[in-house]
């Protein structure tokens, strides 16, 4: 009996010794936000992977509250967590990071899973699909030129209620592919190359491989290499730009999707490539479901401009929504442009009510080259960051502004000494 009690005492003591406070920090939120992701650099604190599990707690008046978190490795290790729900402006919250076995919560499995189906990579939340990324080649319908084939795009994108919100290869524009971002008018050493209008046979964009896939308690997603191919270039010079597409879905608790869409461009060409000013191209393009038309689809921008007047204007965010068969009867996407993006607030291409021969189909795009050329110099990196909030029902401007606040600026993190 004495030996048994000694063993138990040693185990308890070992557990206390194993638990180690690694860092204490405060998080300050200047503007009111919703489900703000927070990133904390682990450089400079006493942590390495030999220490075991990281457990995050919020310091509250009632004691320590466990907070789900996720470690992201890379050039610098970062810890991610969410400030769930609505956070009021000028709020400060305190946290402590420990190295111990998680006791406050045990389910650290990823809510958002990665599922590969034939030629598609899907992100799925509790059996509800969120989006599908097409990495296999998609050919056009029989009888349509094979020049329209394409890989490397998002379709379908579903609403939380299961409504399909994207469309590909519509007969009026076979080169439209759900959510995608090729560049239209470009010049390479004085020669024009169009990566958007595939029927020209000048260029295309194709999937070239996955760089990473991750499933976690806070976010899940992937990085894909996409190549902009110049059909008129000789030999190995056919790659005009390499694009890394980073898609990340945040594990929010409420019934909506928060999706980050980040694209990074580099050119291997000695003289780079010029992205000419034009009303289409680059950024993030969206061809909406065929069910949306002039009578049931609306647009609202951060500048309080509606669908019929939004084209050619600039915005921090834009809500596109329309009728669906969901219980709420309506679904939509809030598109957010990050302040670091070129030409932010960002110019847009928005089909007005009279678009597409009067049918009023819906097309939206953030277009950072709408009014000014953009030179992509050789071997330099250029990035554009977007976030999509996918929802059922109706979203108002106040809610959109809160989401933009959470995207536009990371909350201020300030470390304090560990006793």
Structure description:
This protein is mainly β and 419 residues long. It has four helices and 29 strands. The relative contact order is 0.14. The protein has helices spanning 2-18, 307-310, 355-358, 397-408; strands spanning 20-29, 33-41, 54-60, 63-67, 70-72, 78-87, 91-99, 112-117, 120-125, 128-134, 153-157, 179-180, 186-188, 191-193, 203-214, 219-230, 239-250, 257-266, 273-275, 284-287, 297-301, 314-315, 317-323, 330-337, 346-350, 363-366, 374-376, 382-392, 412-416. 9% of the residues lie in helices and 45% in strands. The two termini are 37 Å apart. It is globular and about 65 Å long. The chain folds into two domains: 20-106, Sandwich (Immunoglobulin-like); 112-407, Beta-galactosidase, Chain A, domain 5 (Distorted Sandwich), CATH 2.70.98. Residues 1-18 have low confidence and may be disordered. It has an eight-stranded antiparallel sheet. Strands 4-3-7-1-29 form a five-stranded antiparallel sheet. Strands 12-20-26-25-22 form a five-stranded antiparallel sheet.
């Amino acid at each position: 009996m004495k030996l048994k009690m000694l063993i138990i005492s040693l185990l308890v003591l070992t557990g206390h010794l194993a638990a180690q406070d690694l860092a204490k920090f405060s998080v300050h939120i200047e503007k009111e936000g919703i489900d703000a992701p927070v990133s904390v650099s682990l450089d400079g604190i006493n942590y390495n992977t030999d220490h075991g599990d990281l457990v995050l707690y919020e310091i509250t008046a009632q004691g320590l509250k466990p907070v789900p978190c996720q470690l992201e490795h890379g050039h610098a290790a970062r810890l991610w967590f969410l400030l769930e729900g609505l956070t009021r402006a000028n709020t400060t919250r305190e946290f402590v990071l420990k190295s111990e076995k998680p006791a406050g919560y045990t389910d650290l499995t990823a809510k958002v899973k990665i599922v590969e189906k034939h030629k598609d990579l899907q992100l799925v939340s509790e059996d509800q699909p969120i989006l599908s990324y097409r990495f296999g080649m998609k050919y056009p319908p029989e009888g349509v030129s094979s020049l329209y084939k394409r890989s490397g795009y998002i379709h379908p994108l579903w609403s939380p209620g299961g409504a399909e919100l994207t469309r590909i290869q519509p007969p009026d524009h076979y080169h439209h592919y759900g959510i995608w971002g090729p560049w239209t008018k470009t010049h390479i050493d004085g020669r024009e190359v169009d990566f958007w209008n595939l029927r020209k046979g000048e260029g295309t964009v194709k999937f070239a491989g996955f760089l990473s896939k991750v499933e976690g308690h806070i976010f899940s997603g992937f990085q894909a290499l996409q190549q902009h191919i110049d059909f008129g270039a000789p030999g190995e010079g056919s790659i005009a730009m390499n694009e890394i597409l980073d898609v990340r879905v945040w594990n929010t608790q409420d019934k909506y999707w928060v999706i980050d869409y980040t694209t990074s461009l580099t050119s291997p060409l000695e003289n780079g490539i010029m992205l000419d000013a034009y009303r289409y191209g680059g950024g993030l393009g969206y061809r909406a479901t065929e069910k949306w038309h002039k009578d049931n689809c609306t647009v609202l921008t951060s500048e309080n401009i509606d669908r019929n007047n939004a084209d050619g204007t600039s915005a921090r965010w834009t809500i596109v929504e329309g009728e669906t068969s969901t219980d709420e009867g309506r679904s939509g996407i809030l598109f957010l442009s990050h302040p670091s993006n070129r030409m932010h607030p960002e110019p847009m291409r928005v089909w007005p009510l009279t678009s597409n021969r009067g049918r009023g189909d819906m097309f939206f795009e953030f277009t950072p080259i709408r009014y000014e050329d953009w030179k992509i110099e050789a071997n330099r990196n250029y990035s554009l960051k977007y976030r999509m909030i996918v929802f059922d029902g109706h979203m108002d401007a106040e809610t959109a502004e809160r989401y933009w606040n959470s995207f536009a600026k990371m909350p201020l993190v300030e470390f304090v000494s560990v006793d």
